[in-house]
Specification:
This protein is α/β, with parallel strands linked by helices and 430 residues long. The chain has helices spanning 70-79, 98-111, 128-133, 155-168, 187-193, 196-209, 224-229, 238-242, 264-272, 289-293, 309-319, 324-339, and strands spanning 5-12, 18-24, 27-32, 40-42, 46-50, 52-57, 82-87, 115-118, 139-143, 171-175, 215-218, 233-236, 279-280, 354-358, 362-363, 382-383, 388-391, 394-398, 401-402. Strand 9 (139-143), helix 4 (155-168) and strand 10 form a beta-alpha-beta unit. The structure holds (4S)-2,6-dioxohexahydropyrimidine-4-carboxylic acid and zinc ion.
Length: 430
């Protein structure tokens, strides 16, 4: 059988060089010039970046499919240059047993248009060892404090859970916050009751409890002090980098998220810690506008963002404040390393997941986005959205068109093939 080959012609690479990328059987064969193959895509004037690995999304689905489902969530991911998403386990019901976990993978495999991993829940009752065998990519986010649809794990229980996860050799991710008593009736109260100082304290406490061998990852840290205190890899979200609570009306629940948006001052100083951030992940947490527009106190926390993450950050790189190389490290290579999956990239043999971006940014408009949430807090901000996205050398998204092909499931290293049919054939060579 003849090999399927594709040539991305004349693409701009992050270092500024213009080159042709030869892909065969879904993998990069050569980056150079002067090659000829039958199937080519003209990339003149477009920046070519590896597809992002967003290691923190909430795809909803199931009973919460009115907020988002695997199809719309993955459409949103692809339109934003994200080719791999990692779903969090605070679903309804939470992913605490191998049976519920397998049903979740089946739901994803039937609808998800990009590659995906699924994390397992961490609670004292969760069957961690079976979840690892069922294919969990990582454990968490572990709720060291309660958040939407996630019950808190008591500190007394956390240490033994950490030991069990370390013994499996699995990565663990943690949502660390401290919650003070009081009326959460405004964005500033939210910031006060889930303070940055409490986040730092929890990050310190959890870091101190960490067994030596555990790969520990701190989700969505919202302040420089927490970043400095972290003994583990550090994740920051686009909303903490691009938004502050002062940008919203005092009780505008669209700005309500855990951990809370901080002050403009704190937001700016997060950028000064760019080099200390390991991972940028979206914490895509879609809730409908109706849910976010009602009574502030009753509104669920969370901000949709899988589609706008890369476009906002690529525009930031165009402004010259960050380098494209550092952006790729935080959105492609580091998350893949932490999760133990192969990253797309330009080297021979890398998975050919790529997104082609225009050289100019334009203002974000909610009506152009694909999440069921139907709103964005980034309206009007500059962003560069990809025009073509490839997964494994196939066009997955181009000019509002999506290929019918489903993404592949990326199980964790503990996976023992159960013979279930939801295992996508592509998984074998990821
Ligand atoms: O604001 C949040 N929303 N923080 C979380 O940790 C969970 C998320 C959600 O699932 O909606
Ligand atoms: Zn969280």
């Amino acid at each position: 059988m003849q090999k399927r080959e594709l040539l991305l012609k004349g693409a701009l690479l992050p270092g500024g060089r213009r080159a042709d990328i030869l892909i065969a059987e879904g993998r990069v064969v050569h980056v150079g010039a002067g090659m000829m193959v039958e199937e080519t895509v003209d990339c003149t004037g477009l920046l070519c970046l590896p597809g992002a690995v967003d290691m923190h999304v909430h795809m909803r689905g199931g009973k919460q499919a009115y907020k988002e489902d695997w199809r719309t969530g993955s459409m949103s991911a692809l339109a934003g240059g994200v080719t791999t998403v990692v779903d969090q386990p605070n679903t309804v019901p939470p992913l605490t047993t191998a049976g519920v976990f397998a049903a979740r993978v089946r739901e994803a495999a039937s609808a998800c248009l990009c590659n995906f991993g699924v994390n397992a829940a961490v609670t004292p009752a969760a069957d961690l060892e079976e979840l690892w065998k069922a294919g969990a990519l990582a454990f968490g986010e572990t709720f060291a404090s309660p958040s939407s649809y996630g019950d808190a794990v008591a500190m007394e229980d956390l240490r033994s859970l950490m030991d069990r996860i370390a013994a499996l050799g699995a990565p663990m991710t943690v949502h660390a916050e401290e919650i003070l008593p009081g009326d959460d009736d405004s964005l500033s109260a939210h910031d006060t009751l889930r303070p940055a100082s409490g986040e730092r304290k929890m990050v310190e406490k959890i870091g101190a409890m960490r067994p030596q061998s555990l790969s520990l990852h701190f989700c969505h840290l919202s302040s420089t002090a927490s970043i400095d205190a972290a003994r583990g890899s550090v994740e920051v979200t686009p909303h903490h980098l691009f938004l502050s609570r002062e940008r919203f009306g005092p009780t505008d629940a669209r700005g309500k998220v855990n951990p809370p948006l901080r002050t403009e001052h704190e937001r700016k100083s997060l950028w000064s810690h760019w080099d200390s951030i390991d991972v940028i992940a979206s914490d895509h947490a879609p809730h409908t506008l109706a849910e976010k527009s009602g009574d502030y106190s009753a509104a669920p926390p969370g901000i949709p963002g899988v589609e706008t993450m890369m476009p906002l950050l690529v525009a930031e790189a165009y402004r010259g404040t960050i380098t494209l190389e550092s952006l790729l490290e935080k959105t492609v290579y580091a998350p893949a390393r932490i999760l133990g999956i192969s990253a797309p990239g330009f080297r021979k043999g890398c998975r050919a997941d790529f997104a082609l971006y225009p050289k100019e940014a334009s203002p974000i408009k909610a009506e152009h986005l694909h999440s069921k949430a139907g709103w964005t807090p980034y309206e009007g901000m500059d962003a560069a959205f990809p025009v073509i996205v490839f997964i494994g050398g196939n066009i997955a998204f181009q000019k509002e068109e999506y290929a019918a092909r489903r993404g592949a499931w990326l199980p964790g290293h503990g996976y023992i093939c159960s013979g279930d049919t939801y295992v996508h054939a592509d998984t074998a060579h990821l």
